[in-house]
Amino acid sequence: MLYIRFFFQLDKAAPVLARLKDPVVIAKVNADKFAHLANKYEIDGFPTLKIFAHGVPTDYYGPRKTDLLVRFLKKFAAPDVAVLNSDSSISDFVEAAGTDFPIYVGFGLNESVISNLAIKM
User: Fold this and answer.
1) Ranked by mean pLDDT, which of 30-39, 88-97, 98-107 comes out on top?
2) What is the spatial distance between Cα 2 and Cα 10, in angstroms, rounded to a whole number?
3) Gap between the Cα atoms of 118 and 33, Å rounded
């Protein structure tokens, strides 16, 4: 029953994540049918959620409710640093990123300085 409820949450999250400026793709795989993938990615229990960043899989242990999953994945997919050159670009960034995690704004600094600060935080 947990398996079905969890994937119902993913089905609800998928359209929200697909509408993002940089969409987050959710894929479901039947590990019984595609056992070679289950073995390759060391899936031995269900439900299992893996996040792939630049082709590298990471186990996901975060929240599984739709709204919390969407919030986490939006934050996960957000760029570390974004150069915003206008009031509208700032508004668009805040709207896309949401207000559920801190946003630091640096004025008058060059991009490499801001990137280094972002890495340290």
Assistant:
1) 30-39
2) 13
3) 43
Amino acid sitting at position 79? P
Q: Taking the model in full, what pTM does it have?
A: 0.62
Phi then psi dihedrals of residue 81, to 5 deg: -135, 135
d(CA 92, CA 50) in angstroms, rounded, equals 29
User: pLDDT class for 36, splitting at 50, 70, 90?
Assistant: very high
Residue with tokens 């996901």: 60
For 56, the enclosing helix (H) or strand (E) is: strand 56-59
C-alpha distances (whole Å) from 62 to each of 73, 76, 109, 113 are 10, 11, 34, 31
